[in-house]
Amino acid sequence: MENSHLSNTRFTSLNIDASIIKGLKNLNFEFCTPIQSESLPIALDGNDVAGQAQTGTGKTAAFLIAAIERVLKSHKTNERKKQPKIFILAPTRELAIQIAKDAEEIGKYTKLKIGLAFGGTDYEKQSSKITKGIDVLIGTPGRVIDYYKNKIFSLNKVEVLVLDEADRMFDLGFIRDIRYLLRRLPKPDKRLSMLFSATLSHRVMELAYEHMNNPELIKIDADKITADKIRQAIFFPANQEKIPLLVGLIKEMKNNKIMVFANTKKEVERLDNYLNNNEINAKGISGDVPQNKRIRMLDHFEKGKLNVLIATDVASRGLHIPDIKCVINYDLPQDPEDYVHRIGRTARAGTKGNAISFGCETYAMSLPDIENYIKMKVPVANYKPESLPDVNHPDK
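RE: above sequence
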């Protein structure tokens, strides 16, 4: 793995508890990423942070380290009935699950107990664990509010607040729920607050200034992150050539882990049918898939038992899956920020990856805005229509 994505700051040079350092060493974390090197000194000093950073840049570890350090220093982890000291809100259950997994690894040598609260499954199981007492509560707004109103936990002991992917929480309509919860926390000057977002838009900053204590702004250049390690290319197929081109590309890549993006749930389902009818091990993920099945599907994809994962932007939020070799934009996204988010699924943690896009008749008009946003021209790739494979149709 290449390390040019790292800074020169070692975790051991920061004022971090030995138990956290031990957990980081287990993960082979020695040097900070840019978002970590810039935000950790601020948060470790007790100052609020509003950070702009894409997924895959190390922001989760940054806020977990600062949060765990704050609570360990407070020496309030041995109460008989523990109420959450660290409160982390995420837009999707997948992201909440991933944050909890990272918290378990980084906090492995601490005595902190972690609880999850997300919708769709495990209502009694989650509430039972929280009721027994936890130090860290990680959840999505709807289920968290449900438990709060049913007095499963209290928010008056919270010492650290984290809002992850704040822009996506706006997009998914959670802002009223977030404000409901934040108004029930200790006052901003009585806690450490950290907010991370792909963009620090006006609405995100309004939330930050309303519910945080003079946060310091940290911005990591999204364009540089996007372009450095990802080999990008775009084909311009006719609409009827898109599926043969997709099938041909995936078969050329053999057993590599591939993520395919489409713009609609209906198209995801259509691609699922086509790919499986052409002997490609693929699954489409959408919000309608039951939670247990989603978790199993993602586990199979992460372990290489599933070759191709097909998703929309909404269904893919919060997915942190290592070793994705290629992202294929079957449909170009209509929002340039979504392009950055999508191709950021590959080339994570300093590795290299590929991003292939289809500039079809329907969505090619999105390309100029994307290229303007990433400040580069996406290289054009060519193919011969006569070389495209014949495909089996799902109804045959």
